[in-house]
Design a protein that fits this description.
This protein is an alpha+beta fold. It has 15 helices and 31 strands. Strands 27-24-26-25-29-30-28-31 form an 8-stranded antiparallel beta sheet. The protein has a 7-stranded mixed beta sheet with strand order 2-3-1-4-5-11-6, with helices on both faces. Bound molecules: guanosine-5',3'-tetraphosphate. Guanosine-5',3'-tetraphosphate binds next to helix 2. One of its GO terms (molecular function) is GTP binding. InterPro entries: EF-G-like_DII (IPR053905), EFG_III/V (IPR035647), G_TR_CS (IPR031157), P-loop_NTPase (IPR027417), PrfC (IPR004548), RF3_C (IPR032090), RF3_dom_3_sf (IPR038467), RF3_GTP-bd (IPR041732).
């Protein structure tokens, strides 16, 4: 017989879905997010997210840099309800604000939605983010957007996904025409055509007209050639295409594909409906005591992102925690696995864009923001009851490198402290030359913004002005087997060896080609684009 808390947790998990959108800039992520919130009733008129953003720019001064650049550095969590389900949309920072946080957010997600522009197909940022999803085995739902604009054939796009990403595809709905001739989509589950209304207004929930495929009017509603193309495509899909296999979807091996136009709201509701049906509910997580199911009665979670200075008046930091098990309650005390300390979780926050709203409870699959007076680091576990620790979050291959110098010897201590704290927070990766004479830290990042944030914060929080010098590398690889494995291969060329903050060897290359060359010359050397994760990481002394 299950206890009351287990029943409560079971119900909460059944009704929760959590996902992040992966896409390349301009594919329509902001637009789709807005439309999802519109259907979820979280906003009443689309444009609100953008307007909120503009308003924030005008009124908030929480981070001067954000104002200067006019961008959002934070990733936030948007929570909305749809058909009784509680949906958590983890917003991944994109564009110029692409950083390791974008990757880390995926560590807190149970599902990913891959948003593709129908005219462009797969693009570089989407591919990179896909690799992170693949590593985690996240289920991927594909939304092909902008069908109201000229674009590529549906079959060709599916083929691209299969060939390039190695994912099987299943078209849950199927487009009829594209661009000026876009007529709507065919829902293969219900065997109904949803007709697209070109003059539908995109700011409110769309009104949807459906007809059966066998309807006598259908040939008139769709132009004849489009009707026959639909029939042909469907015959092909039914004949040689795979059936929808939810096990494969949940293992991240098959992607259900949807077509629509976020701008005009078309296909968004249909997507939501099937997403809720097919998406993974909050599941079990690997930990030091094995896989822990979400209905485990004690509370636990892990930190996947830290953010500083949201409120300059308080100079506070917020730790974003993914709830994995049990029920979170305001003011509860928890254990901090890495330090062994007891921490009281006061001032918990739920975040909608930049607005903070206090919360009293949270369940598995939810994300909470906690005030972080320097207690938490990325990957930290908090728990009640029996001690457990979740697998850490790996470091992802940086692509930008710069050495950072403090020209003022009297600021030596502040500089060291700042670097060490910012690294611990996960603002940037820090590496050191293996040549002891070169003591300046090397910053390694996935986005330029990370460098700017570090320099800005060193100046504002630690009073140290720094000089940054970009280094000519673009690829980093960790050496499996460490220094011993590296020594065995002897001299290697066209690479620079540095050590990460754990003292592990990392090879830096100018380009992918040099990296491949080394691999070809030394196939015995195993290189990895992702740093191995150790639980309870203890950085070496800097
Ligand atoms: P992002 O967050 O992924 O970068 O993309 P965003 O939603 O900002 O969309 C990028 C551009 O694509 C926007 O146009 C947006 O209106 C447009 N867009 C998004 N979805 C659709 C769609 O389904 N159909 C069409 N035709 N366009 C779409 P913009 O001109 O850059 O901005 P705005 O003036 O519309 O704000």
């Amino acid at each position: 017989m299950s206890t009351q808390i287990e029943t409560e947790l079971h119900q909460a998990v059944e009704l929760r879905r959590n996902f992040a959108i992966i896409s390349h800039p301009d594919a329509g992520k902001t637009t789709l997010t807005e439309k999802l919130l519109l259907y979820g009733g979280a906003i009443h008129e689309a444009g609100a997210v953008k307007a909120r953003r503009a308003q924030r720019k005008a009124t908030s001064d929480w981070m001067a840099m954000e104002q200067q650049r006019g961008i959002s550095i934070t990733s936030t969590v948007l929570q909305f309800e749809y058909q009784n389900c509680q949906i958590n949309l983890l917003d991944t920072p994109g564009h110029q604000d692409f950083s390791e946080d974008t990757y880390r957010t995926l560590a807190a997600a149970d599902n990913a939605v891959m948003l593709i522009d129908v005219a462009k197909g797969l693009e570089p940022q989407t591919r990179k983010l896909f690799e992170v999803c693949k590593l985690k085995g996240l289920p991927i739902f594909t939304f092909v957007n902008k069908l109201d604009r000229p674009g590529r054939e549906a079959l060709e796009l599916l083929d691209e996904i299969e060939q390039e990403l190695g994912l099987q595809t299943y078209g849950v709905n199927w487009p009829i025409g594209v661009g000026d001739r876009f007529k709507g989509v065919f829902d293969r589950q219900e065997q109904k055509i949803h007709l697209f209304e070109r003059n539908a207004h995109g700011s409110r929930a769309a009104h949807d007209t459906t007809v059966d495929l066998g309807d006598a009017e259908i040939e008139k509603l769709l132009e004849e050639d489009l009707y026959y193309q639909l029939k042909n495509d469907l015959e092909l899909l039914e004949g040689v295409g795979p059936d929808l296999d939810l096990d494969l979807v949940h293992q991240g091996k098959m992607t259900p594909v949807f077509f629509g136009s976020a701008m005009t709201n078309f296909g968004v509701e249909l997507f939501l409906k099937y997403f809720l049906k097919y998406a993974l509910k909050p599941g079990a997580h690997n930990s030091s005591v094995g896989k822990v199911p979400p209905t485990y009665p004690d509370f636990s979670g892990f930190v996947f992102k830290l953010q500083a200075n949201m409120d300059p008046k308080h100079r506070d930091r917020v730790a974003f925690i993914r709830v994995c098990t049990g029920k979170f309650e305001k003011d509860m005390t928890v254990n901090h696995a890495r330090t062994g300390k007891v921490v009281r979780l006061s001032r918990p926050q739920k975040l909608f864009a930049q607005e903070r709203e206090s919360i009293d409870t949270a369940y598995p699959g939810d994300v909470i923001g906690l005030n972080n007076p320097g207690v938490f680091a990325i990957g930290d576990t908090i728990y009640t009851g029996q001690k457990l620790e979740y697998e850490g979050i790996p470091y992802f291959s940086p692509e930008l490198f710069a050495s950072l110098r403090n020209p003022n010897p009297s600021k030596f201590k502040q500089f060291q402290k700042g670097i060490s704290e910012l690294r611990e927070e996960g603002a940037v990766q820090i590496m050191y030359s293996s040549d002891e004479a070169k003591r300046d830290p090397i910053m390694a990042a996935v986005g330029q913004l990370q460098f700017e944030v570090v320099q800005f914060r060193l100046q504002n929080e630690y009073g140290v002005e720094t000089i940054l010098e970009l280094l000519p590398y673009s690829v980093a690889r960790w050496v499996e087997g460490g220094w011993e494995a590296l020594e065995k291969v002897g001299r290697i060329f066209n690479t620079t060896t540095v050590k990460d903050n754990m003292g592990r060897p990392v090879l830096l290359f100018r380009n992918e080609w040099n990296c491949q060359q080394l691999q070809a010359d030394h196939p015995e050397l195993k290189l990895s684009a992702i740093a191995p994760v150790y639980s309870c990481e203890q950085p070496v002394k800097e």
